[in-house]
What does this fold into?
Amino acid sequence: MAGRIRTVLLTALYLFIFSSSSVAADNLKSEVQRGDGIHSLLTRYGLAENACNMDSFLTLNGMGPTDFLMLDRKYVLPIKVYTYNGTSIRSTIGDEDYEKAVRIQYFNEQLVKKGIKDADYRKDNILWVPFHELYCGQAVEGFKPYTTVIPIFGEEHKNVTVSDERLKGHVYYLVSGHGGPDPGAMTKKDGHFLCEDEYAYDVTIRLARNLISHGATVYMITRDRDDGIRDTEYLEMDKDERCYYNKAIPLNQVARLRQRVNTVNKLYDKHKNDAVQQRMVTIHVDSRSEGQKIDIFFYHYEGSQVGEKLANTMLTTIKDKYAEHQKDREYRGVVKTRNLFMLRESKPSTVYIELGNITNDFDQKRLLIVNNRQAIANWLDLGLLKEAGFE
Ligand SMILES: [Zn+2]
It folds into this structure.
């Protein structure tokens, strides 16, 4: 429901902007390059870091997260174009926040450096202001967004903006399934091996980055030092994943599960006195007969009320998001209990997620399309925010 209100408010806000653009001329529009997806387009303009820009982009262009960009179309970007008054950014945009002005200056300079923006705003009087500086600030009084560098996200994505601190003190153990000598479920497509562990890893690491942007403490339990966030369709199969921090992953299944549960439980005890709450999320991809489509579904341990609430909150979040972006698509995800080792032996309340059926053509789109992997991570992040009591 709250999501609906927010969409209506956002739409009203955009209509207001379009009709009263006395201060700001207009929104920036952009063409698309071959191979572009929404995420790569936003990344080019330095907008992908703030999930709110993604939402704004979808609303501005009347699109859903799984929609494709058309080469022959121009898209409205969540960037407002101001005529710089030659005095200051603050007086140009009518906002006295000095830090924000510094960030906007840096934003413009970076885009000139990247060759995306033609000239410096002090030369051509064209100032670009991203929406996340105007409409999406969830900064709590006194909190100033900052950038932290996390190498495991890879060169392209290692600079993470912590845009709010709603999840400060919340500790998350993210365990992508399998890894190391065990690729999990596998299938072949167009000559490529699709491995469960690689796709589960990419969705998990995107979720990690989202959670950190809200100030959470996040442990990537399965770690791959040279595979950061990958914006490619086919994810190369490898065997160099390690268990936190740098332990070799055993081939034997029980030993592998025991290793990661022990690792998590030790960290859990360490944070017992300083954490607001601690949760574990483990992400897998299922394997059934080819013809079977399976929507994202959840397991929790029988009798774990927190686990049950966690799973149900994430399920309803995904349900709402599908209803919002793909009205005709019925989401058939479920929550079930299962007596799995990871659920039974781990100290933090845990949700076990299956992303789909790796052998099914339709479900493969959910995994192969970069935008979709990012959308899943955004939705899971939103589900965790809700479970933690935030909207
Ligand atoms: Zn699995």
Q: What stands out?
A: The chain has two domains: 2-133, 153-387.
